[in-house]
Amino acid sequence: MKLIIIKLAPCLYHVSMVTCFISSTIVNTRTHYQRDEVKLKAEGKTTKKKINDTGSKKKRLKKHQIDDLVRGIGLTPVAKKTKSNNHQQQKKTTSIEYDLQSPNISLKTQLDYSRNGHAALRSFLPKELIIQLRKELISYTATNALLAWRQKVEVQLADSSDDYYKDNACSIANNLQSIEECQDMLESLGIDTLNDLPFLQHFNTWRASTNNSTSSVRKLCLSHYMAQTASILLNTPTVRLYQDSLFHKRVGDGPTPWHSDARMSPFDTSAMITFWIPLQQVSIPEEGGTGLLFVDSSHNDFALPYWNGVEGNEYDRLENRYGDNDDGISHHMPFDVGDVTVHNGWTLHSADAAEFIEEGQDRYAFSVTYVDGRAEVREDILGDDVKGDREDVWSFRDWVKDVFPRQQFSHPSVPIVWPIEKRDVKP
Predict the structure, then answer these.
(1) 0.70 exceeded by the pTM?
(2) How many domains does the chain fold into?
(3) Which one, 104, 137, 237, 305, has least CB within 10 Å?
(4) End-to-end CA distance of the chain
């Protein structure tokens, strides 16, 4: 008890000093006023109107005046309380100027993310923005469809048992001149392009904003709003934009297999977060919804990669590890336009097949991934003995060769976006 009193004593002393200082200021103000009143009476003038306006009430300092007094003795003023509920969050994000606002991430959301490795952010983005993103990104996919098909070919070749295909996957894929050639190559590898592929994927669309085709995408990825949210949930002081991805799930596309994003990245870090943003409403799974499914707390399963490496058999029997009765599997469907999910880089997740999607109703989802600004690149990432998956190599191959492994670095393709004073890219 004595220890508590001793610790509180300096605080109580400062509070007393502030109170005395403010009281003294008010008394001095009254004294000057009374002195002026006596002088006016001696001159035969009345102060009745003045008294009616101010004399019947105690003179109160405005908050900013009190704050100045508090700062004057070395203390920090108390911030004005604001409402922190979902209604306020929705109200704040109704404007397209979302990046000028501070995110309102509840303690429950932070706990859910920390405990389960995933969480939902309802009405996180304004609907007007989602509509604009969808417009820009669908246009982007139409212009760059061949790149998405080449990426699928390279991934399959790199995973081939044929050493020639494996060693020359990149050059073979880049030499394919049409979507039809890509599809023929996949078919020759035993891949049914209508049912076996989980989606078509486009990387780093935010960089295409140089021709103004994805300006809203760039604004979102580099926004203070997204970056600060990532910092809060990752609990890291600095945040780096790693990549964005557009997932085009076509009618008939197969399921997205269980995977973790961090296994596909070049970083050695546990602090990675992905924002998954559906670009349309998504129904519940029983009605054909293809939102993400998560294995609860799988981001904390350190034993899985430690004991089994990358190619261990345990990855093929996860239902035995986590249970096959869906007790440990969660989702956040349905989604309204503007709803977002976040998940840790090591959280296992998947998505169902698009077998119930009607013709012309392809599902588009946009993701943005951030990492700890202090995360370093691994030395194995571009070698022959890569420890992770190669599926996302298209995302980082153009910049990772410029970075020295196991060192802090700066690169415009993966900029620091939080805090504001350390940003190394212009929005």
Answers:
(1) yes
(2) 2
(3) 237
(4) 52
